[in-house]
Amino acid sequence: MTEQNTTTAGEERDYDEYRVIEDLGGWKRTHTCNQLTAADLDKEVTLMGWVQFRRDHGGLIFIDLRDREGLTQTVFSPDVPEAHERAHAIRIEYVVALRGIVRRRPEGMANANMNTGEIEVYVNEWKLLNTSDTPPFPIEDRVDAAEMLRLKYRYLDLRRPRLAKNFILRNKAAQSVRRYLDGLGFLEIETPVLTKSTPEGARDFLVPSRMSQGMFYALPQSPQIFKQLLMVAGLDRYFQIVKCFRDEDLRADRQPEFTQIDIEMSFPDEEQIMGMAEGLVRTLFKETIGAALPAAFPRMTYKQAMDDYGSDKPDVRFDLKLVDVKDIFAGGGFKVFAAAPCLKALRVAGGLELSRKEIDDYTEFVKIYGAQGLAWIKVKEDGEWQSPIVKFFSEDEKKGLAERLGMVPGDIVFFQAAPVDVAHAALGNLRLKLGERFGLIDEKAFAPLWVTDFPLLEYDPEDKRWVAKHHPFTSPQPGQMDSIASDPGGALARAYDLVLNGSEIGGGSIRIHTPAAQKAMFSALGITDEEAEEKFGFLIEALKYGAPPHGGIAFGLDRIIMILTGAKSIRDVIAFPKTQKATCLMTEAPNVVGKKQLRELGIQLREKPTEAAPEAKKGEA
Known about the structure:
alpha+beta, 16 helices, 22% strand
């Protein structure tokens, strides 16, 4: 149980020794709380930090002192009466400075789980730097407090050792990136945060202008256009660790503001960019957690990824693939399969053990992705097939299915008969669920993968037009520019994504660098010359002045850190994250602003908001 920072009437302290001091009085910290070892025995040291635990053994008082680096056990002995007497006033999360001698812990009392576990500091004197109210939750890793509460008191949550280590590692990663790219001649250049709204992709966050009322800036979704302009400017190699903003629905690996490692090069081809990117990721993993990634990352086309895994960011740490079985049932008696636009199967060895409830839960799960249901077959130990759909199969269909899938006793097979995108999304996400359920995923492994040959364009049925798969500045593969207008769905992009353990950690492309090609792309996207001039006129103008061939890649730094630390949510690697409703529980942003500010901006609200910020559902962050 967490001790409370309270005192009884008989314990009231009102004399000077117990007052918080106004300054350090010349004391200087000599070591962090994770630094001292047996090599420091008999040294006089000064430590400063927060009180993690306090244990009063009647005579000796033990204080575990904590800073961002770790813990050191300190001892207050009756042999030093003044320091010992005053130590009775210390409570958890008090901020103190301690001065004392490093001693070896008594025989049998060493703690092998602590870097400082062999020693303790025998305190001669100490200063009280600040007191603390009882925290709303314990400052320790095993805390089970709701995430909503921890986000409200984020500055306390960040004191927990696990979170503090995340940000130590994040800093280490950023410095590794800078060293690597600086060594390759890249220049770190900042680009604007207040820019022009060019809506192609997620929604922009808009910022009203006071000096140009009725006009708005947009916060950048990425520095895409600016980094291309830096190549036009002849700066050759650019990078930036940069904040980006997208107004989109959130999830565990997405935030409204996030950080990219943004990179652009002049005169490259795909091989140069991908080679540079592989070197960066290998260096980053080696220098932060000591992990060795492959000397060359494997590659897979977009089509193969979708066909085999139902995802353009496949987790290839386990070998469980989707199989096309449509031809087996073509013209057959089971009309659900025979008439399906796409029919995919997923065989799971050992799946016979799944209960009917589990299967029903998986059926509800795939409905999230537009599936109408989930057909299945169990292969019993005696080889008999158990399923409500088997009675509709002919013997030839059974034989063909068994041979195609390699079905053996103990298996379960799941089916999706649906449009291609639904079948892939449903079984692709079910595959991940089953990988976890059957322990198929090696959580300690890192499996990088390049996904290449993406479609240049994809059709948006809602807007009834073709849109860019990546962005409208991506170059088509050689020889395909002229066919974009006649066959927009057949063009492939000079684009590449880097996937790690089922997460897209980076993506990039070779860019369009001539005005004619860029106008042709805009035309294929249904963007008129007038719209193109309004949205992207400055870029088209710049391309007229000798733009070099160029390309690049951007990495999601937050996602990389999430993988490096083993965090389950991107919120655990962002210092002050937002909830799933894009609110900050600590600062209560977004909030209502005063009428004077609105008048200065020329803004009038239709109706008055009733609260400062929408509250997320209980337990939802």
